[in-house]
Amino acid sequence: MTFAAAVTDRTRHLRTRLCVGLDPRADAYRDLAHLREHTLDVLEATAPFAACVKPQLAFFEALGVPGLTLLEEVCAAARLLGLPVILDGKRGDIGSTASAYARGWLTGPHAGDALTVNPFLGFGTLTPFVEAARANGGAIFVLVKTSNPDQADVQGQGVSERVAVEVARLGAEEEGEYAGVGAVVGATHPQDLALFRSLMPRALLLLPGLGAQGGTAAALAPAFHPGGTGALASASRAVQYASGLSVAASREAARRLRDELNAALE
Ligand SMILES: O=c1ccn([C@@H]2O[C@H](COP(=O)(O)O)[C@@H](O)[C@H]2O)c(=O)[nH]1
User: Known catalytic residue: 90?
Assistant: First the structure.
């Protein structure tokens, strides 16, 4: 089953559109063993309420080689739990380097099922990512309009719309309900969600910024299709560190966010 089909299946059968983000901050733990245990515990505790999981590569890379080993463990554990994995790496570069990124993060030993991708080196540089994702039934999420308040300094509405049109074009010929070329649109921009939904009708939208950045489930309905499919709302700190390092609190936060999204959509 492709990534797009697998998350949509979880949405329909488990009634969840929540993407649980894993951003393990080294300074929150006694040592690496503690970070590892808590991260894997949060993953397991929140899995029943999640459509997918999104490890942020920066936090794993910051730990060096042990971080990459842990990332492999996280991906393997997610698979055992039936959770599709989005690696949030925001990769992008000239073609030859983009190919290496695509091999590493979409087909390599610590590959995810999907990868976030930066389009700002030009649309041609997306090709290796699209091809690697297609070859493996995976997906990419292209940055269209990021969640941070200063995104408009560089992205701007015209640029974001142009990227959105390209995302739709890249996915247009793919089979299936949703294409393997999706888009990142911040949950912090609820006023723009209807526009981006209409510009990219068959793209899965990844909506980061739920919780800690101020995004709310109630405002996200325009990103979804009738029936509540087509988008994944993502929260990291609000789940992993819902109340200090309490795993029970992480579980309850995931359950609450899942329920809030369902209340807004069903
Ligand atoms: O536009 C974007 C794209 C990615 N992110 C990443 O998502 C999480 C958000 O963390 P929270 O704790 O839920 O705020 C983090 O890994 C970001 O790098 C984003 O925030 N916005």
Answer: yes
pLDDT tens profile 173-182: 888 999 999 9
With a Cβ cut-off of 6 Å, ligand 1 is lined by: 21, 23, 56, 88, 146-147, 184, 186, 208-209, 211-213, 234-238
Ligand 1 centre distance from Cα of residue 209 (Å): 6
Q: Which residue is closest in CA terms to ligand 1's atom 21? A: 147
Q: Which of 36, 38, 54, 90 is catalytic?
A: 90
Give the residue extent of every domain in the chain.
3-265
pLDDT in tens, 136-172: 999 999 999 999 999 999 999 999 999 999 999 999 9
Mutation to probe ligand 1, out of 59, 147, 241 (largest number of atoms < 8 A from CB): 147
d(CA 144, CA 147): 10
pTM value? 0.98
- Taking the centre of ligand 1 as the mean of its atom positions, its distance from the CA of residue 163, in whole angstroms, is 19
What ipTM, to 2 d.p.?
Answer: 0.99
Residue-by-residue DSSP string for 52-109:
EEEEBHHHHHTT-HHHHHHHHHHHHHHHHTT--BEEEEEE--SHHHHHHHHHHHHTST
Which residue CA neighbors atom 10 of ligand 1 most closely?
A: 236
Question: What's the topology of domain 3-265?
Answer: TIM Barrel (3.20.20)
